[in-house]
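WARN  no MSA supplied for this record, continuing single-sequence
INFO  ligand: glycine
INFO  echoing inputs
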Amino acid sequence: MSKQEVIICRNLEEDLEKAVSQHTHDRLFVLTDEHTARCCLPLVARIPCMKDAVCICIGVGDVHKNLESLAYVWGQLSEKGATRHSLLVNLGGGMVTDLGGFAAATFKRGIAYINVPTTLLSMVDAAVGGKTGINFNDLKNEVGAFAPAGQVLIDCGFLRTLDRENILSGYAEMLKHGLISDTAHWSELLSLDMEHIDYALLQRLVARSVQVKEDVVAQDPFERGIRKALNFGHTVGHAFESFAMKTEHPVLHGYAVAWGMVCELYLSHIQTGFPSDKLHQTVRFIKENYGRIGFTCRDYDTLYELMKHDKKNVAAGVVNFTLLADVGDIRINQTAPQETVYELFDFYSETMG
Ligand code: GLY
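INFO  complex generated
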């Protein structure tokens, strides 16, 4: 997989002009959702290189990350004269960058694209690393391709447009990057005051976080081994996310990942010796900032069933985890029996309750 260039913007206008000029193109398209069309497109549309860009706008939220929206984007590209030499700029959160990346990867067997992520979650995770795709048959990211953007332009100015919940959602993935990288970064992340965010500090932490992800992806772009480190917290996290959806109390992805990390840090503690003090420091931060998801022991079977169907599992019915022996000491392809998984739910209920 070719490497994508990730740029922490000092000046979005200059950086976008430069990125666009690096792709010889006949027509330029910009993909937004209804939200970024209103809040972010005006900032980008006034940049000279974007003046003739054709805007394609899709619905907001994960429910629109589907075949219908994808077909709409393909249709618009076709109707508005896109060729193999056209360029697409994806302006939005993870939904837009995932779907837009997949549309670009497949239209006429692939056109170039640039990601301009506008949420913290997409800056530190979705827009970086070349995973693209859509949900299908009620399964998240079921159809997709590895297809890196030419450039990813991270402008932390967009973070000021986000509410606290969306900052926290992205911050959970940053916390994960801290846990899989080094103690200094992890410790700095735990010290950010989430009530009164210092945006200059947040920008520095974002740059470091993106670097952690890039380093992992560079070693294993197609997730055959060490890229599974990025799944830390997601085995239980995805079960929490699906459970919340089923019970009609949907939660933001990063909240589910934060709660998943509580369980998977505990599993790391009992199975691979993750230090108790670091476990409790991290759990305290998550409890203080993310609250908790409500479930009782009557829900354990449902949660466990959801985990058994996770696509990260290598064998049917055997739940796969990425664990840590310490901050930065990663153990991929770990498993746990059902009774241990139920013990994780007990730990969660006792410590987060
Ligand atoms: N979101 C995890 C990865 O990109 O591998």
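The CA atoms of residues 135 and 141 lie 4 Å apart.
INFO  checksum written, moving to next record
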